[in-house]
Design a protein that fits this description.
The chain is of the alpha/beta class. It has a single domain, classed as Metal-dependent hydrolases (TIM Barrel). It is 42% helix and 15% strand. The chain contains 13 helices and eleven strands. The chain has helices at 30-34, 45-57, 75-85, 110-113, 119-125, 128-140, 164-180, 194-203, 222-229, 248-260, 280-283, 289-305, 310-325; strands at 2-6, 9-11, 19-23, 62-65, 88-94, 150-157, 184-188, 211-213, 234-237, 267-269, 328-329. The strands form two sheets. It has an eight-stranded parallel β-sheet. Strands 2-1-11 form a three-stranded antiparallel β-sheet, with no helix packed on it. Helix 7 (164-180) links the parallel strand 6 (150-157) and strand 7. Helix 6 (128-140) crosses helix 7 (164-180). The mean pLDDT is 97.
Length: 330
Amino acid sequence: MSYIRTLKGDINPEELGFTYSHEHIVCRPDYWVQRGEDDLLLDDKEKSKMDVKDFKNHGGKSIVDATAVDYGRDVQAVKEISDELDIHIVGTAGFNKSFLWDAKVKEELKPIIGEYDTYIQWIENTSINKLAEFVIKEVEEGLEGTPFKAGQVKFGTAYNRIIPLEEKTLRAVARAHHETKAPIHSHTEAGTMALEQIELLQSENINLEFLSIGHMDRNPDPYYHEQIAKTGAYLSFDGIAKIKYAPESTRINCILHLVEKGYENQILVSGDTARKTYYKHYDHGLGLEYIIAKWIPRFIDEANQRGFDGEKLIHKFFVENPARCFTFKK
């Protein structure tokens, strides 16, 4: 039996449709609250909803919300957006990168995880298997005590290093995957340490076809991407529109290099739209409509000029590949 788990419930993979594979919709990360970084707080449900509506109006069907427990997610608000717009949203269990763990534990989580003041205290003082049990519960029972279940499990690592606590959460997520069969997503800081993550996951006997690796366009190295693709993992190019990191030509060249090498079935595309200034209805940014309305026509044009079938590739990246990647296979 194969299915995709959304906040609304389980659906058949073919129901997922056109999908952004890595976004953030409503979240208030305490780490950024403490530092007064208002741009990183997506704290207005109605403004977030308007951007999601723009995405839907252009033909979007589903969004994977990659917000983990340590990034201040608002599960109820995101579920309401899903219901009110009749759009599928996949929630995320697991963890993010370690520097966020100085954040205060949400009060409503303390009955679930214990009376810890910060996430780092919780992770330090809890065994791998107990952390895995928490992740399993979020997949099988619901996120943060709600009845809305996660559809993927996540871990993250730092820039050019994996600290021991990150390895601990990686192993917890791997063990939760074995129990639940939930797909795995990894955060890489600036696209680094993907091969090292893979090595650790292999030590936990993970089939890498269940893994998507984030932020690959932050490290626009075609040789590196090819080595990752050879393992069977999905590569997520989820920094579309972030010109401060690289021009779109660089991202498109990296994607088409993988296509040339025969890895078009392992490519995901999204925006990781996690700032007010990226959202149209918060602060006049390009918004969630940008990829579907503006970037895709450009990609199709460039791909066609280079002898590819651009429309066919777009269908793979946004429909076929997400439908496989985010499927639970019992």
